[in-house]
Amino acid sequence: MTESSTIQEIRRNTEFDLSDAKSVAKLIFIKTSAVQLTSATLKFSQDLFAGVLMHITYTKENGTLDDVMDFITDPGWDSALQMLLHVQNDNRSFQQAEAAKWHTDFIQQVMALENESAEVLVQQCRTHWKNAFTAPAQQVSQTAAKHQRSICVFNQAEVNIALDKISGIGAAKKASGQLILEHAQINQGHRAIPSSRTPVAGLEKAAKNFGNLLEPIKRLQSRLALSSCMKPKDFYIPPILLLGDPGIGKTFLAMQLSQILGVKMDKISAGGAQAGFQFTGSHASYNDARPGSIIKLLADGTSATPVVVVDEVDKISTGNYPVLPVLLDLMEQETAKQFRDEFLDITFDASKIIFILTANSLADVPLPLLSRCEVFDIPRPLPQQRRLIIQGIAEQLQRKIRKKIALDQSSCFMLSEQMDVDLRGVKRLVEDAYARAVQRKESVAYVWPSNLNFAAHENTDDHKTPRYLH
Question: Residue 353: its pLDDT value, please?
Answer without folding.
Answer: 95
